[in-house]
Amino acid sequence: MKVRIDPERCQGHGRCYDLAPDLFGEDDEGYGLVTGDGSVPAGEEHTARLAVSNCPERAIELL
Ligand code: F3S
């Protein structure tokens, strides 16, 4: 499983990196970034889904 943020949709709400700090970070302006290549480690799938469902812009995809 991988996560991806669509930069066209992200508005910097920050819920992804608040809820799943191991999977997401932020850039200098508070927009979300995936950590590394976006791979979700074993055991973090639930957290990844939580981030997806909490992004108000629906900017996060699971691949
Ligand atoms: Fe952006 Fe959604 Fe995270 S708007 S900062 S991807 S919660």
TrEMBL record:
Highest taxon of source: Bacteria
UniProt xrefs under Gene3D superfamilies: 3.30.70.20
Location of the 4Fe-4S ferredoxin-type domain: 1-29
Protein name: Ferredoxin
A Pfam family of this chain: Fer4_15
PROSITE patterns: 4FE4S_FER_2
Cofactor section: [3Fe-4S] cluster
Signal peptide stretch: none
Keywords: 3Fe-4S, Electron transport, Iron, Iron-sulfur, Metal-binding, Transport
SUPFAM superfamilies reported in the protein's UniProt record: 4Fe-4S ferredoxins (SSF54862)
Gene Ontology molecular function, alphabetical: 3 iron, 4 sulfur cluster binding; metal ion binding
PANTHER family in alphabetical order: FERREDOXIN
